TrEMBL record:
Residues 161-184 are annotated as: Disordered. GO terms for molecular function: acyltransferase activity, transferring groups other than amino-acyl groups. Pfam families: Acetyltransf_1 (PF00583). This is GNAT family N-acetyltransferase. It comes from Haloterrigena gelatinilytica. Residues 1-134 form the N-acetyltransferase domain.
């Protein structure tokens, strides 16, 4: 697998993805976002991420869209791509990376790359995660002094929603668990 950072915002390249294979395919044609991809040895794109600077804080990079080819999900490609973008962004001088996720699978993948739930949601019911993990002023999260409480609070947000069978089963398997181990 080859991982390439194709460009930084605001001068990102246009990336045309097959809408039948990739969620958010149309979002990658915008040129104002940076892009990174994962490719097979045969040069086939199997994952992509689009990102740009926060409008009010130039030290924060927002990961806007992450997509993995439907037939390649669950192989760890997304977390590896995100880890590489994270590392390059930190090298470039960004202090913090943020992302808003709309499903528990993405939430888990981001946790595996060192992101943590902030306790915030967007107006469209996405949970906001950031790297490095947020530090609470009182040293705790929702009355609990550990990362497990922060992780479980995010999962609880998802549990309160209408879920697919796969999401409900996934969330049940994580009931009371510690955050996943950092992979990258």
């Amino acid at each position: 697998m080859e991982y390439d950072l194709l460009g930084w915002p605001p001068d990102g390249p246009t990336l045309r993805l097959d809408y039948e294979r990739f969620s958010y395919a149309g979002k990658f044609v915008m040129t104002n976002t940076g892009k990174a991809v994962a490719r097979t040895d045969e040069d086939e794109i199997v994952a992509a991420v689009a990102f740009n600077e926060d409008r009010t804080d130039a030290s924060t990079l927002w990961l806007r869209y992450v997509t993995v080819a439907r037939d390649r999900r669950g192989e760890g490609i997304g977390p590896e791509l995100l880890a590489r973008v994270r590392d390059r962004a930190l090298e470039r001088g960004y202090d913090r990376l943020r992302i808003a996720v709309n499903n528990p699978f993405a939430y888990e993948a981001l946790y595996r790359t060192g992101f943590a739930y902030t306790g915030e949601t967007t107006g469209i019911a996405e949970l906001v995660l950031e790297h490095p993990a947020p530090v609470d002023d009182e040293g705790d999260f929702d009355g609990e002094p550990d990362a497990k409480a922060r992780y479980q609070a995010g999962l609880e947000e998802f549990r309160e929603r209408e879920l697919s069978d796969a999401e409900a089963e996934f969330l049940e398997s994580r009931e009371g668990s510690e955050p996943p181990t950092l992979e990258s």
